[in-house]
Automatic annotation (TrEMBL), chains A, B:
SMART domains: PP2Cc. SUPFAM superfamilies: PP2C-like. GO terms for molecular function: [pyruvate dehydrogenase (acetyl-transferring)]-phosphatase activity. Residues 36-46 have a biased composition (Pro residues). GO terms for cellular component: mitochondrion. It comes from Phocoena sinus (Vaquita). Residues 104-498 form the PPM-type phosphatase domain. InterPro entries: PP2C (IPR015655), PPM-type-like_dom_sf (IPR036457), PPM-type_phosphatase-like_dom (IPR001932). Gene3D superfamilies: PPM-type phosphatase domain. This is Protein phosphatase, Mg2+/Mn2+ dependent 1J. Residues 47-58 have a biased composition (Low complexity). It holds the Pfam family PP2C.
Length: 505, 505
């Protein structure tokens, strides 16, 4: 594990690549600032739980990067081979005998039926200790005061075009979140509103008053209230961005060629933050009720954002694509006829006369799982994909992808949860063939068959969900009980119980 | 009225100004195409109801434009003066003796308490007949076949920086909607799916099949289903855009200097379409339940769209504004300190080191009613404002404003409505001081005190809503019963009953 921590620190301080033109968080390691020393609090942190990464520390970096599973699965070399077997598709879970995941979280995964050589999903579950970078008041922190924060962290990463980006994100994204939270350790534990401005001079107080404001504009005569919660949201948003920038810098050295969707959960100070960038999905099932905790980002759901970008920056379309959408491909022989279309402003459709440039490929096309952006990619948010180009072209796709998650917040203290209330995270392998209601029915069926105090019930539930989406081999395919095809994709599921977190915080 | 129709047609065919670079609907009158003849079906249309416009036809165009109220109010010159009296603020409604508005719609309005010389709200209520432009099959229409469509139309227009834009929109927007629907008359009455492509050759059939599709892309192997409903939505969206373009072309000749919010309702073939661009608001109150039918577009709700535009097109900020948001004005002495900010991607807040360019005015600032874009305007969608500039600057604001409405659809046939189920439209004068729940309570109180078959009950309700928002003069102001200040703005309200439309369609 020490090797892994060192490796992570090395990643954080390594350099290369041009920084994108957006504000940098102060003191965050990046290629343009001086490399900070290794975090001084690392030896004093609580021992980190086994995260994702190498299951076989003795193997070379290359071998590990080519295929690894979450360390918390504690797979032996033989188990690793079985987990990699497309024919058997054995469901993997942490062993019942070892140390449980925090909160008795349940986890299960299964490899795809052959669409890629290895399982390109990755997962991570950690308890992360954050020590403040320095006092808000500017004075150096006294290490003995023990004013740090702990957060609980779960992450699912669904890789595409290779597993490297997912593997890297599963190792490092929570460390970026920790970096972003370091500035906030004291602020988040202080019940007064966050200071709007922090001094550059040590010892000077942060300011939150506006008594010295000037200017005639009425919109300036007041100030916005910023909540502690929105600071955590901002920290998670920026952590995603910095993770993506790190992938950009290190993509050559570490062969980070593909990309990944990221769905992470942070539990901090009584609140659950669910951050999603991609097409994974999270729901809470509470007393049978379904509460969606994320939405998917695809060419369909983000059509107007993508079209607007193509309209405002036509050079990104390279003369190969049109920002207009048509309900089907326009044929050259239809030139001069009128076809249904919609642009970046419209949700409805109208007819337009087909002109020469409408014969270009549309930026967005297709529906449902077949929807594609630039005829290439089916998700529009995530990490990585810095080298992704349009097929048979040099046109880069990355400018249209966003690394920013949508963050939803759930206050655990506002409701008295029972042991059957859970937060379910799944990659699209689960949701492609399973509806929210079917998940809720499985939650009810499995948990009501287990003792409420049996800590293995959440793993049993995760396994049932994965098995229900995978199906069984029959009639030349993996099939569900209703004889429809099961998911041939990688499937990964976390089941996080909401009934008992109080004892861990 | 004939003069008004002629005037409208003249507007539609007049020229001037450069067309914006977006697809044009075919055959729509604009400055670059040949002026069409006056609509041939006009004499055969049902007599149009009295719309908004001149209440005193004998007055000059200039005088009318300077102050007019909806014609359906049937105001005498004396009544017009009373409606224009800021001291009395008498509530205006159509007379109980005249012809009722369609569906026995209720309407009431009151002038502001002095913030502008005249009432800058306008309203329109019409039954509009649409005759198809030509047969989809390309054959000329036979006028005797009577295959036209009727739609019912209600519009509220809240002007700013003068009343001209609101007055023009109230006269013409429904005509633009009619223009857009002309192509769809046959398609909307044909139960089969709309043709995706219309022939340019008369007599050739429209195509909706994809059997001749080529190309290896799986996203191209299918075609999208386009519904009749989405064609109506597209027609309304484009009508808003063409109305805005007409204002741009004619702003010099007709002194259309300000802008307006537009909230319109179209009832067509069993469905209610509510289109909103601005900060007016529509709700349905059905059996006591509140169904929001619009959302407001302000610098707060559209922050990320505005910031994204400023980020992608920094030249629009003219070196005067920053696209970043800060919770209060940044002071020059705070240079180098760290302040909370958020950019176009963030919903949370984070700290950044203040640099020189952060001292520029932020593109978006303030909260609630004080929120402003470019320190100037508090709404971000609507019609007009083509000449609007940043105060003490030549920087145009229009590029950040959108003329596109959000359209919500409500299917009247899916629910058996009772006489107390209503759609309430109000300008912000109503909603600034009245919550959805308070409106619903007034609906219940007023309608339950009237006979269900009394057609004047909806006007009584509209009057009660306007009076409840205006208050009464007390303690040097217009005050509500709880002694809070009433609305000093113009207030206009439509109450549309949902229980009886079947007999009109």
């Amino acid at each position: 594990m020490l090797n892994r921590v060192r490796s992570a620190v090395a990643h954080l301080v390594s350099s290369g690549g041009a920084p994108p033109p957006r504000p940098k968080s102060p003191d965050l390691p990046n290629s343009t600032s001086a490399p900070p020393a290794a975090p001084p609090q690392a030896p004093r942190s609580p021992p980190a739980r086994a995260g994702s990464g190498s299951a076989a520390p003795a193997r070379t970096v290359e071998a590990r990067a080519s295929f690894c599973r979450p360390t918390f699965l504690q797979l032996s070399p033989g188990g690793l081979r079985r987990a990699d077997d497309h024919a058997g598709r054995a469901v993997q879970s942490p062993p019942d005998t070892g140390r449980r995941l925090p909160w008795s979280t349940g986890y299960a995964e299964v490899i795809n039926s052959g669409k890629s050589r290895h399982n390109e999903d990755q997962a991570c579950c950690e308890v992360v200790y954050v020590e403040g970078r320095r006092s808000v008041s500017g004075a150096p922190r006294e290490p003995s005061r023990g004013q740090g924060l702990c957060f609980y962290y779960w992450g699912l990463f669904d890789g595409h075009a290779g597993g490297r980006a997912a593997e890297m994100a599963s190792r490092l994204l929570h460390r970026h979140i920790r970096e972003q939270l370091k500035d906030l350790v004291e602020i988040l534990q202080d019940p007064s509103p966050p200071p709007l401005c922090l001094p550059s001079t040590p010892g000077a107080p942060g300011s939150s008053d506006s008594s010295h404001l000037v200017g005639p504009q009425s919109c300036w005569s007041s100030q916005k209230e910023v909540t502690h919660e929105s600071l955590v949201v901002g920290a998670i948003e920026n952590a995603f961005q910095f993770m993506d920038e790190q992938m950009a810098r290190e993509r050559r050295g570490h062969q980070v060629e593909g990309g990944c969707c990221a769905l992470v959960v942070v539990y901090l100070l009584g609140k659950v933050y669910v951050a999603n960038a991609g097409d994974s999905r999270a729901i809470i099932v509470r007393n049978g009720e379904i509460i969606p905790m994320s939405r998917e980002f695809t060419p369909e759901t983000e059509r107007q954002r993508l079209q607007m970008l193509g309209f405002l920056k036509p050079e990104l379309l390279g003369g190969e694509f049109t920002h207009l959408e048509f309900p089907r491909r326009v044929q050259p022989k239809e030139l001069g006829q009128r076809m249904l279309y919609r642009d970046q402003n419209m949700t409805g459709w109208a007819y337009k006369k087909i002109e020469l440039e409408d014969l270009r490929f549309p930026l967005v096309c297709g529906e449902g799982k077949k929807a594609r952006m630039m005829a290439t990619i089916g998700v529009t948010r995530g990490l990585g994909d810095h080298n992704l180009r349009v097929c048979s072209s040099t046109l880069p796709i990355k400018p249209f992808l966003s690394s920013f998650p949508e963050v939803r917040v759930y206050d655990l203290t506002q409701y008295e949860h029972c042991p059957d209330d859970v937060l379910v995270l799944g990659t699209d392998g689960l949701w492609d063939v399973t509806s929210d209601c079917e998940v809720a029915a499985t939650v009810d069926r499995v948990l009501s068959a287990c003792e409420p105090n049996d800590p293995s019930r959440y793993t049993a539930l995760a396994q049932a969900l994965v098995l229900g989406a995978r199906g069984t081999p029959r009639d030349r395919g993996w099939r569900l009980p209703n004889n429809k095809l099961g998911s041939g994709d990688d499937i990964s599921v976390f089941v996080i119980p909401l009934g008992g977190p109080g004892s861990y915080s």
